[in-house]
Design brief:
alpha/beta, FAD/NAD(P)-binding domain, five-stranded parallel beta sheet, 7 helices, binds flavin-adenine dinucleotide
């Protein structure tokens, strides 16, 4: 049976903070809006507890924040579809095509808001201690470790910058990396000069231990073959990210880390195609910046559509 073809003003790919904010704004501007989600609505924040830095909400769970945002977007007419997986996109055409298992959507504009995943340590216990001593975001959770002992895993710029930042809270910080540091020399130097920091290279993390919360990490010194146990209150894993851009790699321009290149206006090089949230190449990735991108992308999508109706494509 032929797939049903449906026209939409805006198709948003990804129902995290960026995608749902874009849906709320676009729906409120009377555009027809569809949000396609391949996993669970909410993205990275879906299961987070105790978010303390979302303006106006001193302590909110990811579940409550996302449920409120989804219903706010739906009240303005946005449709969120979690069960129709995207098979193909063709974003250079006009209208743009987003083909799912069941439908072919013809979209005036597309907002890519597919986010990213942080790479996990290859240790089974990691999941047990996630949020209970194992963290991925220094800006989100660093303040929990005021006066404590922590470790940062990783050796690139992101890890060393995270370590430098976290010394503002921690009394003692270990940077643990399995080979040599790849971070900029200036960031390495800053960390080396910090009396709170110890850098442990050629060192691999072998086990995480604790009861209800992480208490120690077991590390292997690769040069001596000796295993050591470090008492830590928490660790921050910073061993890379995986942006969700596989679907778009032949359509839009990707940065070396796989994110999509676009400026603060969220415009890609393709007219009518925007990128919002953590999947956009940018320095700060937080809920507020994802919401800001979703806002910008939706407002500029509306402008693009209304200009196009007047026979003008301004890009
Ligand atoms: C554990 C944790 C705690 C955090 N705590 C905080 C905090 O306290 N404060 C803060 O400001 N930030 C926090 N962050 C960061 C914050 O969650 C992110 O910056 C923000 O959620 C990014 O939103 P996003 O919409 O850009 O992407 P995401 O949240 O990654 O959402 C993207 C969505 O797109 C979907 N998707 C991917 N590919 C496809 C596809 N092909 N088709 C359809 N859908 C697709 C994904 O399933 C996902 O639902 C935290 C992150 C983590 C991991």
């Amino acid at each position: 049976m032929a797939k049903e073809r449906i026209k939409k003003d805006v198709v948003i790919i990804g129902a995290g903070m960026a995608g749902l904010t874009a849906a709320l704004y676009a729906g409120r501007m009377n555009l027809s809006v569809l949000v396609l989600e391949s996993a669970i609505v909410g993205g990275q924040i879906a299961n987070a507890t105790g978010i303390e830095n979302y303006p106006g909400l001193p302590n909110v769970s990811g579940k409550d924040l996302i449920a409120a945002l989804q219903s706010q977007a739906e009240n303005f007419g946005a449709v969120v579809d979690e069960f129709d997986e995207i098979q193909r996109v063709s974003l250079k055409e006009d209208p743009k095509i987003v083909e799912t298992e069941e439908h072919i959507y013809e979209a005036e504009t597309v907002i890519i808001a597919t986010g990213m995943e942080r790479r996990k340590l290859p240790l089974q216990e990691e999941a047990k201690y996630a949020g209970k001593g194992v963290h991925y975001c220094e800006l989100c959770d660093g303040h929990l470790y005021q006066g404590k002992t922590i470790a940062v895993m990783g050796g690139g710029n992101a890890a060393v910058d995270a370590a430098n930042f976290l010394t503002k809270y921690a009394d003692k910080l270990y940077l643990i990396h399995r080979s040599k540091l790849r971070a900029d020399e200036a960031s390495q130097q800053k960390l080396r000069e910090n009396p709170k920091a110890s850098i442990m290279l050629e060192t691999e993390i072998k086990a995480l231990k604790g009861s209800s919360k992480l208490e120690t990490v077991e590390i292997l010194d690769k040069s001596t073959g000796k295993t050591e146990t470090l008492a830590v209150d928490g660790i921050f894993v910073n061993i890379g990210v995986a942006p969700h851009t596989e679907l778009f790699k032949d359509e839009v321009e990707l940065a070396s880390d796989g994110r999509i290149i676009a400026g603060e206006d969220c415009k890609t090089k393709l007219p009518g195609v925007f990128v919002a949230g953590d999947v956009r190449e940018k320095e700060i990735r937080q809920l507020t910046t994802a919401a800001a991108d979703g806002t910008t992308a939706a407002i500029l999508a509306e402008k693009y559509i209304s200009n196009k109706k007047r026979g003008k494509i301004l890009w």
